[in-house]
Queue: 3 jobs
Job 1
Amino acid sequence: MNPTVLITGASGGIGEELARLFAAHRHDLVLVARTEPKLQSLSGDLARAHGIQARVLAADLADPGAPPRVFEAIGQMGVAIDVLVNNAGFGARGAYAEIEYEVEARMIQVNIAALAHLTRLFLPGMLARRSGKILNVASTAAYVPGPFMAVYYASKAFVLSFTEAIAEETQGSGVTVTVLIPGPTETGFAAAAGNQDSRLFRTGTVMSAAAVARVGFDGLMAGKRVAIAGVSNKLTVFSTRLAPRTTLAKITRKLNS
């Protein structure tokens, strides 16, 4: 019997590439995203290519009621989730005083609340079985203040801190919790956030979604707490330990301008 992985934000980018990796390694899939037609196409392709089961759940994680509905739907399927991948997330670029708060509130719900809620729903079952893995997707943004993307950067700081804390809580339980730290990545994220023309994406090292997903997959399977994608991003994270946070904020302001 194949293990089953639940992946949020699976309709593109890092989430889609993670789905491909898990399918290739004989995991049954439950794919969650807002866009059902693309999920159906992806799940069908992966099921045929790898001889696995692939299920689709259309859900908007900006809705606070979505995580319990996802959990209930999984229960009705009669499957246990062996791996939870909290990948869904988005950003928005602009001065905090100018971005509509509805956008920021949705970001907090998707990037923080839904991730924490899904973890709370699925973690007890893993602990009871003394087996399971959780992968949360953060960002190098987690390590610095983020002028002109203030809520996004803060949300990823939450994901990093939350993951490291839960990883410590579950040590020795048979459950491992890993956080993936990508930097700029070739996905639809930058365009959706209005950040594709920023210095961060124009001058930084941009990795492919497939390469980032591989780092996350390998780190998860190895039981790492933190998996940083790429040498450039490892250097970036290390450098944040050396500079005052006021300096980091000024640097990030320039990168997001």
Job 2
Amino acid sequence: MDLGLKGKVALVAAASRGLGRAVAEELATEGASLVLCARGAEALDETRNHIEQTSGTPVLVVPADLSLAGDIANVFSSGLERFGRVDILVTNAGGPPTGQFDTLSRESWEAATRLTLHSALELTRHVLPGMKERRWGRILNITSIAVKQPVDNLMLSNSLRAAVTGFGRTLANEVATWGITVNNIMPGYTRTERVTELARMMAEKEGISAAEFVGRWEREIPMRRLGEPREFAALVAFLVSERASYVTGTSIPVDGGWIRALL
């Protein structure tokens, strides 16, 4: 299936590892040029080199802290200078710290809000005018299964990714007439560094091994295994493609059946 992504320019946030990197690699395979950002310059350079060598796709990397509006502006302006436009935006950010309400300070909430919610808002604010002008655009927010079925001990993530979901769903109606789609995609337990670290921290609190804790997750998933980043990235590529031009305002899980809700 030709997804119609050849010649498109995609900005993928938090793309040096995990889900963001998998998305970048998938979009490169489909022929999209890439603007990638993350905090670590070394990991970003390695990601760029790998993608350019394996796909031949041009990749611009810009180190950035997505909790800082100035860094976000620099990512966008650098992409504009290199490629002239951004057709596709994939918002993404590292998960905020774990914890229950009583353990989280006002500062924790403010930092998590800047990283998780404000980064999606600011990235969208920059790309939207050009998308409207060209009457074509794709905005996809990477959220979490936690917005549908909250996960214990993830107060910040449960709350703020739900806020991103509300933003994306509302924006979808506002920009649909310009040929711009806005969707949310909800990863479940996927084999990434973030999930591995989360399992380690949760296991330590219970005095068990990380492998035992991962096994508990796997027993909750009807497919009885964690997802792979490439499986998640495949759906992202479709949702930001020309072929998904009538899909907007949705929140789609990639979770192996973990969410038990009907809708």
Job 3
Amino acid sequence: MGSQMHEKVIIIGSGPAGYTAAIYNARANLNPLVLGGTQSGGQLMVTSDVENYPGFPEGVQGPELMERFRKQAEKFGARVLDIDVTAVDFTVRPIVVRAGEQMFTADSIIIATGANAKWIGLESELKLRGRGVSACATCDAFFFKGKNVFVVGGGDTAMEEATFLTKFANSVTVVHRRDSLRASKIMQSKAMSNPKISFIWNSEVSDVIGNDHVSALEIRNVVDGTKKLVPADGLFIAIGHEPNTILFRGHLETDSRGYIIVTDRTKTNIEGVFAAGDVKDARYRQAVTAAGSGCEAALDLEKYLEEHHHEPVIENEISSAAR
């Protein structure tokens, strides 16, 4: 038999959105429980240098930044369990959340399970991730000043990434499986008219070469199967993201790509259930926007509890002014 515990607030997910929500809810004396997953910390756990998070002029390692978020949440009274949620039931009150044999009930929930970049699926790509292989140009383009980089993909995201990279890189080569792009006409013409961007059609990256950093790519022609080796300093994968919402499909409204649909910024279609960060944001996908969104969800949740559970959310005026 699994044990059962009742919570005012359960936060599912432990990236910048989940931990920021936990900091705010903890400071409001809500004693939130964070079910962070066995791989806690989100996408920043596979990011080496984070140079664009405000307050860190020297840059910070992704895992260290997440450890600081966690300590701050715990300092104010949040409890973090590194366990995976396996089922939810939003049709009952209190809401039911299961993690294997354990069962929790909650008055309110924040979903901050994030999204993952889709990868090609090569062993060499995994080995060199963070060492020349990236899925985020806005995060990592700065490291490729004057270098020759490649982008995999043919949609709007790939064209945006390629165009952004030209501000830093010497050359950007787009590798696409088809002979035409899926991107919108305006993004296509923008990329195609950029003198720094060139295209390799009907092709895929079949291997990434390098010891401690990317040095070359093996590119395979999908029509005739021929392979060629090209020198490269970096590889950006831009074939989309997958929001971590499988658990909630059928329970919450999601769009065609699986992102949770919210109204009024963080409210889902189920009362008392809020969403924050990349799980509902296909557009920005930055640590700082996820953190901001976690704050919004926490404040919306506090208001919901005040209105529906008749308990004033207590936070002394000093800390309220400080936040």
